[in-house]
Design a protein that fits this description.
Structural class of chain B: mainly alpha
Largest sheet of chain A: 6 strands, mixed
Shape of chain A: globular
Number of helices of chain B: 18
Helix content of chain A: 25-40%
Order of helices and strands of chain A: EEEHEEHEHHHEHEHEEHHH
Distance between the termini of chain B: 28 Å
Number of strands of chain A: 10
Helix content of chain B: over 70%
Number of strands of chain B: 2
Shape of chain B: globular
CATH architecture of chain A: 3-Layer(aba) Sandwich
CATH topology of chain A: Rossmann fold
Strand order of the largest sheet of chain A: 6-7-8-3-9-10
Number of domains of chain B: 1
Order of helices and strands of chain B: HHHHHHEHHHHEHHHHHHHH
Largest interface: B-C, 41 and 41 residues
Number of domains of chain A: 1
Strand content of chain B: under 5%
Number of helices of chain A: 10
Oligomer: heterotrimer
Radius of gyration of chain A: 18 Å
Mean pLDDT of chain B: 85
Low-confidence stretches of chain A: none
Strand order of the largest sheet of chain B: 1-2
CATH architecture of chain B: Orthogonal Bundle
CATH class of chain B: Mainly Alpha
Mean pLDDT of chain A: 87
CATH class of chain A: Alpha Beta
Radius of gyration of chain B: 20 Å
Distance between the termini of chain A: 33 Å
Structural class of chain A: alpha/beta
């Protein structure tokens, strides 16, 4: 039974179709990758899933129930969390306060929320920065904060939007480790990524899109060998290696 | 973010403030204190919505005026004592708040500010022109119940204390986290499961309730209201903002300090330092206020409370230990 | 030039079409008669004439809004200050108000330059909980201007009686009030001048670039801050011109700033933020509908017209007219 299904997603902005007929299913517990060149519509797909933008047409199913048209915060309560490509920290709040705010999704008192937040912070390795203002964090830690906040809402499915962009190699390895650890805890992940190393090594299956349309779907090896994908996105070296 | 009320401090303040009018038994000063307390309520209420929740209202006069007119109209139309207005004023302001919220919350930033400004002005115009209902520009006049100012003082004191206490409770709860999250980033907040529309409205309802109650109190205390006074853009809406700014937005005690400073300085100028300075000084009390606003925004943008560390450094700098 | 055609048609519909339809409805309902129909032309004419002045005020504000991104709540007070300057040059130097534009514009330009450079500029990019710091600063500035004028001139109403104050031209049975008509044409000239400035000069282009995309403009070598407070000064100068033009037909007192600031932002919201053509349309619309309101409803509700328009725009056309005409 697939935990998540996107069926024929279409989104028009004025006369331009940013997303045009994207469909895919995600199985429980897998890491599903979404790749494509810049402007192909990847982030728009995410924005459609948690209703940040309303769908022009198509449907979205989570645990077999349609979530089309539901408000963003309701979708979060149902169990879908997301991170933003351009990070959105709650700037004047500390790391602990940021995560506590998201923990309130599941609990109601400050004590419980802080406890839940602390657990998430430890899990994601941010304990040292607990009392630092989100504003002052470098980009790598801000991205980690995005993920921590998402984790604290105790989701079944997380949408990770380019969480690895802008990280140096060491931070990249840490990010990959964290994502794998989250997945090991049973959380399904849909990940949009640019950086091949990340997507290829951790995804179970990948969907490649271009100009808002799907061009290939399958395992990382299958997709990387698809001539369409190679033409649009990957270089020959990745296709071979 | 959540600084607990530092133990004894507030209790001492409460006791002092409670005893003050008995000690300073002069009508004039009691009047000033009552005025200051009214502004503590309006300023703190505004601060909850604007400073903590990030929705900067330029139209709080709407709530003040509705509260005042509820009390007044109950008297003129139903011959009910205006004290009923004390109970109902807050509630009618809340209902109005829901309407204004519905119309204005879909807007962000400066648009929201303008929309609230327009709301206040529209109410003023309605109050001015719907003469049959509101007596129009003539206003409403009632007999005050008490001759002494003491009962009024304690009533508004109670309201102000309740207001600050409620804000303290709210900001130290889940709601507090949610309000600030909405202020910092509405879209991120939604993705974290926060029903932004709901919480903006909750903040608004608390804010409008207390402001409306203050308005109803004003009707009872002053005995006279008219649209240009209680729905005034400059004297109520904008003053509420300035009280918040001077004291410090998003702080618990900021608006209270701001209220004291504002009433104090205005009175200082209006009376030309109680008669000690030349006559023309009294003409400049509004100008002094304007300058205060300009200077505060330029140099103390977090207000007296928010920028207190900065103030301490300037005035209490120890020359021997230079900070590099 | 499909755009121009679209704008003219829109203007025609709003300024002429809708009012006549409203009167028509009134006649059908029996509350209005043939008399009112004849009054329409006169009412619309007055509305358009004063609308020209409103447009000038609106252009000033929308220019500032478009480039600085702030609402200038001191706009009405700048107008008021310019009126006092004009008043003084009439009373003590005998200059006709329309000539005084040459005095009031530079005067207020300098004042606004000072405000922009020393009071508003420091606030840009400054970290603060309330993003509306600049707007609130303009509130403080407006307050100071009002009180300074009150200090100097007292709260008494002042007015200016020119020799031609009561004259009017007639076309058919429609009268064109002399001062208002001159004001309208001067406003027209200033608007055309502004357009030429924005389109043809380097500074004008720099302003338009900054309004469209601050960062890109900076990357192109446009000095951000200078353009920003220069625009504030320019917008205020237009406002000042409107003030001089307004003095012959309006009573002057220190508190008149407030209502005009409100009018200015109603016009700006109606026309669409940053759109100069929108501000023109908005100004004319406000003028016409206020005139209709004054003639057919009552003087008291004249100010309410602006508020009603504001609400309607907010609810039904959030982007303003500019969205409708895509200018």
């Amino acid at each position: 039974m697939s935990i998540f299904e996107a069926r024929n997603l279409v989104k028009y902005f004025g006369g331009l179709a940013a997303v045009n007929g994207v469909s895919f299913k995600v199985e429980k517990g897998e890491i599903f990758g979404l790749i494509g060149p810049n402007g192909s519509g990847k982030t728009t797909v995410f924005n459609l899933i948690n209703n940040y933008y309303p769908l022009t047409s198509g449907d979205i199913f989570f645990n077999d129930k349609s979530i089309k048209g539901l408000k963003t915060h309701t979708i979060c309560h149902l169990g879908i969390a997301r991170t933003f490509q351009v990070v959105k920290p709650l700037a004047r709040m500390t790391v602990l306060e940021n995560v506590t705010a998201s923990a309130f999704c599941r609990v109601n008192t400050i004590k419980e929320a802080q406890k839940l937040a602390s657990k998430a912070i430890e899990f994601c390795g941010l304990e040292h920065y607990k009392d630092q203002r989100a504003k002052g964090l470098p980009i790598g830690l801000r991205k980690r904060l995005e993920i921590t906040r998402a984790v604290a809402t105790q989701p079944e499915l997380i949408l990770l939007d380019e969480t690895a962009a802008g990280l140096n190699p060491k931070e990249l390895d840490q990010a990959i480790k964290l994502i794998k650890e989250i997945n090991r805890r049973g959380i399904t992940i849909i990940i949009v990524e640019h950086i091949m190393k990340v997507i290829m090594t951790i995804s179970n299956r990948i969907l490649a899109i271009n100009y808002g349309r799907p061009i290939a779907q399958g395992t990382p090896e299958e997709v990387s060998r698809n001539p369409e994908v190679v033409k649009a996105y990957l270089g020959e070296e990745y296709a071979q290696g | 973010m959540k600084k607990p009320i530092k133990g004894l401090g507030p209790i001492i303040i409460l006791i002092l403030a409670g005893v003050l009018p008995l000690v300073v038994n002069h009508d004039y000063y009691q009047h000033l204190m009552i005025l200051a307390l009214i502004w503590v309520v309006i300023g703190s209420s505004w601060n909850l919505l604007a400073g903590y929740t990030g929705q900067v209202s330029f139209g709080h006069a709407a709530f003040f005026g509705i509260g005042a007119y509820t009390a007044g109209i109950l008297y003129t139309k139903l011959s009910l004592s205006p004290w009923w207005g004390m109970v109902l004023g807050g509630f009618s302001a809340m209902i109005l708040g829901l309407l204004i919220g519905y119309l204005c919350f879909r807007l962000r930033g400066p648009y929201f500010a303008l929309a609230t400004l327009a709301s206040g002005e529209i109410l003023r115009l309605i109050a001015n022109n719907w003469t049959d209902f509101t007596e129009g520009m003539v206003g409403i006049l009632i007999m005050q119940t008490f001759v002494s100012k003491l009962p009024y003082y304690y009533l508004i004191f109670f309201i102000a204390a309740a207001c600050i206490f409620v804000i303290y409770l709210v900001m130290n709860s889940k709601w507090g986290y949610y309000f600030v999250s909405v202020r910092e980033d509405q879209d991120a907040a939604a993705s974290l499961g926060i029903n932004t529309a709901l919480y903006k409205n909750i903040s608004l309802m608390i804010s409008s309730f207390f402001t409306g109650t203050a308005g109803a109190f004003y009707m009872n205390y002053m005995g006279f209201i008219d649209p240009s006074v209680v729905f005034s853009l400059h004297n109520i809406s904008i003053q509420a903002i300035l009280v918040g700014i001077i004291g410090g937005v998003a702080t618990l005690w900021g608006p209270a300090i701001g209220a004291l400073v504002m009433v104090g300085i205005q009175e200082l100028f209006r009376t030309a330092v109680f008669g000690l300075a030349p006559k023309w000084v009294s003409q400049g009390h509004a100008l002094a206020f304007g300058l205060m606003v300009v200077l505060t925004i330029l140099y103390l943008s977090n207000g007296l409370v928010g920028d207190w560390p900065k103030i301490k450094k300037i005035f209490f700098r120890k020359p021997s230990r230079e900070v590099s | 030039m499909a755009t121009i055609a679209r704008i003219l048609i829109l203007a025609g519909v709003i300024l002429i079409g809708v009012p006549y339809i409203l009167v028509g409805i009134g006649m059908v309902m029996g509350t209005m008669g043939m008399n009112d129909l004849f009054q329409m032309t006169q009412t619309i004419v007055i509305g358009v004439l004063i609308g020209g002045l409103y447009a000038l005020i609106g252009i000033g504000m929308t220019l500032i809004m478009g480039v600085m991104g702030i609402i200038n709540l001191a706009h009405g007070q700048i107008l008021m200050t310019s009126m006092y300057v004009t008043f003084v040059s009439f009373k003590y130097f005998g200059f006709d108000p329309y000539v005084s534009i040459l005095i009031s514009m530079p005067c207020l330009f300098l004042v606004a330059l000072f405000i922009g450079r020393y009071l508003l500029d420091p606030l840009i990019g400054r970290e603060s909980i309330l993003p509306e710091n600049q707007v609130l600063m303009t509130v403080g500035v407006g307050l100071c201007l009002t009180e300074i004028m009150r200090f100097i001139f007292t709260s008494n109403y002042q007015s200016v009686r020119t020799s031609y104050a009561n004259k009017a031209y007639y076309i058919g049975s429609v009268s064109f009030n002399y001062p208002l008509t001159i004001a309208f044409f001067i406003a027209l000239m200033l608007t055309v001048g502004l357009f030429l400035f924005l389109m043809k000069t380097d500074i004008g282009r720099a302003i338009r670039a900054t309004a469209q995309d601050k960062d890109a403009a900076t990357l192109m070598g446009i000095p951000q801050r200078k353009i920003t407070f220069s625009t504030y000064a320019l917008g205020s100068a237009l406002d000042a011109a409107a003030g001089s033009l307004l003095l012959p037909v309006y009573y002057l007192f220190p508190d008149l700033g407030g209502p005009f600031t409100l009018k200015a932002f109603v016009i700006t919201i109606l026309g669409g933020l940053g759109s100069t053509v929108g501000a023109i349309l908005g100004g004319l619309t406000l003028g016409v509908y206020e005139s209709l309101g004054a003639t057919f409803v009552s003087m008291g509700y004249k100010d309410a017209v602006g508020m009603v328009i504001f609400l309607l725009v907010l609810i039904f056309i959030p982007g303003g007219l500019k969205r409708v005409t895509r200018i």
